[in-house]
Amino acid sequence: SYELTQAPSVSVSPGQTASITCFGDKLGDKYAYWYQQKPGQSPVLVIYEDSKRPSGMPERFSGSNSGNTATLTISGTQAMDEADYYCQAWDSSTVIFGGGTKLTVL
Amino acid sequence: QVQLVQSGAEVKKPGASVKVSCKASGYTFTNYDINWVRQATGQGLEWMGWVNPNSGNSGYAQKFQGRVTVTRSTSMSTAYMELSSLRSEDSAVYYCTRAIAASGTAYYSYYMDVWGKGTTVTVSS
Known about the structure:
The complex is a heterodimer of chains A (106) and B (125). Chain A has strands at 5-6, 9-12, 18-23, 33-37, 44-47, 61-66, 69-74, 83-91, 94-97, 101-105. By secondary structure, chain A is an all-beta fold. In chain A, the strands form two sheets. In chain A, strands 2, 4, 5, 8, 9 and 10 form a six-stranded mixed β-sheet that branches. In chain A, strands 1-3-7-6 form a four-stranded antiparallel β-sheet, with no helix packed on it. In chain B, the strands form two sheets. In chain B, strands 2, 4, 5, 6, 9, 10 and 11 form a seven-stranded mixed β-sheet that branches. In chain B, strands 1-3-8-7 form a four-stranded antiparallel β-sheet, with no helix packed on it.
């Protein structure tokens, strides 16, 4: 079955750029999606179809997907961006989630 | 506004079943799939299955095949997830989500744009 792999944690200083990656076999031949989840809250969609932002999502969130890697980039990271981030893909009529990356802003 | 309102927390004994509801409002219920995703404490997101409210068709993750049933009532704009033969490992927060499906793009697109607040299910003897 298809798998998506994420690093468990990433750290970034405020104002710097954070990159969160998601690996999957030929992931670039599918769409990648990203969700943000803060403690005690439901996940929120931050990027869909590799690089599109939902209405109201700040421009500092961007995405790319090529080869075996999808990347979520947060430019000018703010303290409020500290959260868990999950990538997602669709394969063989199933939804696949990555294991999640905890972003720490310090 | 678009909302998914889930039923309240449940406590069940091992071997029992649980049925969680998800009432949709603010959009045409039959135009979007409803998916169910669960999350154990401190763990990641785990997809369980989907239902197409228009056709009633459903699909499930292989892990839950035979143990989960996702249904809907179009008259009540409500989707349901029933999980049977509960064990302690099923203790988790269960989310319903609205899914966007699009086939006119470069690849088939399927993702969740709206999430309910979650229903906590605790399985304990």
